[in-house]
Amino acid sequence: MPDSINLQQISKLLDEKLVPIQKTLNQHGKLLKSLKKDQNTMLDMLDREQMDQRKRLERVEKHLELTTIAS
Hints:
single chain, mainly alpha
């Protein structure tokens, strides 16, 4: 019987200590998801901008009858 009481006390103490840690981890997880979403948005925007610039360059080269420079 004393062992089960001791185990219950240990379990209760661990639960009390883990609750703030779990809350902190959940907050960090939400922040990471938000940062990932923002990163994806920025990368999509930059990719679209690069594609627009590439198309513009191709039109200018065609208009000026320039040969394309290999990169």
